[in-house]
Design brief:
Layout (H helix, E strand, L loop, with lengths): L1 H13 L5 H20 L10 H13 L4 H20 L26 H8 L7 H16 L3 H6 L5 E2 L4 E6 L2 E6 L2 H18 L19 H14 L8 H14 L4 H8 L4 H22 L4
Helix pairs in contact: 1-2, 2-4, 6-8, 6-10, 10-12, 11-12
Amino acid sequence: MVLLTGKFITYLSDVKNSSNNTIDAYKRDLGNFLSFSEKTNITDFRNITSDIINEYKMYLTKKGLSPSSTSRSLSALRSLYQYLISQSITEQNPAREIPNDKCEKKGPQVLTNKEIEILLSQPSTDDIKGIRDKAMLEVLYATGIKVSELISLNVDDVNLSMSFLRCLKNDHERFIPMYPIAAKSLAHYLEIARKLLILHKDEKALFVNISGERMTRQGFWKILNIYAKQAKIFKPITPHTLRHSFAAHLLENGADIHDIQEILGHSDISSTQRYAQFLKDRMKNSYMKFHPRA
């Protein structure tokens, strides 16, 4: 089972060209299923029934996984079985018969303009780490890119003279403008801090950690949490919160939704439209809260 799962992961990488984040999620979800199978003495995918998949689903729920996480795990199993069927290893997909639990639809977590201002003002530019952190936060909010895209940026992806950066994802290029403060913060980082942080002069990574190597998602996550606590922002904040805030604030200030779609790299406009729905819901809640006859 481990060998077949490994072949499926290789298929996702080499044939489907899945992103590293997608592959990591599959590894994690399918790894959990392999652990469950080992505990229950299951050694062959062909011997797994829908009842066993349902037991696994209940096992995940008892472990405290949310409905969305459980649904993602079941989706990973369905995809694995589709691969096994395509390779003539099995004929049935027992995971297909198990429905996902209904997930509560939550709107995007968005910071207010004031919270953004406070958060971005936290890094001290008196030291090289603060200069770097200021640049990362400004660039993330200025462009709305994902944290995986942020840490994948190379120095060559930046054009400071025209204040934009190039974001490459799955052979698709996006050129995203930056507001002046973000461009200035990035220029300051490149001029002062980066040259002192890098370990090798030929380092391509735009943002590096204190070891001089490319910044990691986990590293940036820790940095963001530190500044959120300093800013006394107690709502849940993730790197994606800045992406959500970027999109919602642009819409709120009159930007065209199709322009936002292009900047965010959404292939489907419905992914972008949820920000418009968020603003409508917020306006309705404000009306119901403050109108004297509501």
